[in-house]
Write the structure tokens for this entry.
Amino acid sequence: MLKDYLKMRMPIIVLLAMSFSCFIITNWLYENPLNATFYAALLSMVCAIALGIVDFVKFKNFTKSLESLKNKIKVSIDGLPEPKDKITNDYTELLSILWRAKQESDYEISYRYKDLVDYYTIWAHQIKTPIQAMRLILQTSEDDTNDLELELMRIEQYVDMVLTFLKLDSNSNDLVLRKTDVDKVIKAALKKNARLFISKKISLSYEECEFEVVTDERWLQFAIEQILSNSLKYTNPGGTITIKKTSNQAISITDTGIGIAKEDLPRVFERGFTGYNGRENKKATGIGLYLCHEVLNRMGHKISIDSEISKYTTVVIDFSRKEIDARD
């Protein structure tokens, strides 16, 4: 801080040094007594140092008050030090103008975003009505509707993704945490994807996962459905998907699909990231795994992926990392 102060006051220090030099040289040229010249210069120097110390203390206090505001300034500009001169006052006024403009901009963005979220939430709920009507029509039809039913299931998955994305992005507290039977959740997700297993002729190897965890049943089922959907999407006909319990508090879902490149693995949970295989096959949205990661993370669970190109992809959900109390 002293170094910064000296740098800021350097023009004044140079001016004082020049003044002292001129004073001493002038007195020497006029052959004034050296003692008088020395005492006068010393007295002036002591006064200058005293004023400098006072000025430095004010500078130090002013700097500390600004440092303490660095975190608060994001919320409010109250508490700014009182300006001591016109330049500082002008900077304070500019800061106030920028702050008011930021507040107005934030309010407008927040208002528009709320409208957008409300609209898409209503849309997602409303579109479920024609989806259910279409499903009833398909169930009563005597024609082969297998392909249509698969496409309808995909539409339902995309609607669920939209709703989950909106809830995550709007910071809504939609979690209902309680003890949940993991086996029950997995079987519900498998039942929902049963037609895809049959249509793609993909076999299922399933070991019972009979244990309970503290979680949100609906959000956990969404995450497992997304993982299964990816496995089914990237596994060729005749492949296998294996689900099993890997420890007391973890499950794994392994497929014999096209796999994920090693260089893409660290980024698979990033929003919008599709990776090499996703771009090549033009099937990936880059949202599914991101939502899985965010949903599981909010419930205190951990998700990880291991894969090898053209051989396998294994997704592990670890429930042991629990930091949220259950509501029984």
Notes: The first helix runs from residue 2 to 8.
